[in-house]
Design goal:
With 112 residues, the chain is an alpha/beta fold. It is 39% helix and 29% strand.
C-alpha cells in the first residue's frame, strides 16, 4: 500500500472512530487512544517528515480533542531526538523507550 493509500485508511479509521463515539457516547475525554508501533522519518524528495502510521493516527485523533499517546521505541541518536522534538512541538503525548545504539540495528528508522 502506498503512502496515499495508508493516509486514506487512516482517515477512514479516524472518521469511523468519531462517528462511533458520537453514536454511542461511551467514550469520554478520560479515555486514552494509543497509537502503538513505529515512529520514524519518511525520507522524501522534498525532505524528511515524521512518519509511522501509529504515530500519525495518535496525532490526528488528538486534533479532534481526544487524549492520545504514541507508544514506541527509538534509537538513542540524533534522529530519535528529533522525533521527540517533533512530538513536543505538536504537544503530542508519548511513552517512548530510547534504545542504546550499542544494540545492533536499533538506530532510529527512516522510511522512503
Amino acid at each position: 500500500m502506498g503512502q496515499s493509500g495508508a493516509v486514506a485508511v487512516m482517515t477512514v479509521g479516524v472518521i469511523y472512530l468519531l462517528l462511533y463515539t458520537l453514536k454511542n457516547k461511551e467514550m469520554t475525554m478520560n479515555n486514552i487512544i494509543v497509537g502503538m508501533g513505529e515512529a520514524l522519518w519518511d525520507v522524501l524528495p522534498e525532505g524528511k517528515k515524521i512518519g509511522g502510521a501509529p504515530a500519525n493516527f495518535a496525532y490526528h485523533v488528538s486534533q479532534f480533542g481526544f487524549d492520545s499517546r504514541v507508544v514506541s521505541a527509538i534509537g538513542d541518536d540524533k534522529l530519535g531526538n528529533e522525533i521527540l522534538e517533533n512530538f513536543d512541538s505538536k504537544k503530542l503525548n508519548y511513552l517512548i523507550e530510547k534504545v542504546p545504539l550499542s544494540h545492533r540495528n536499533c538506530a532510529s528508522g527512516t522510511g522512503s
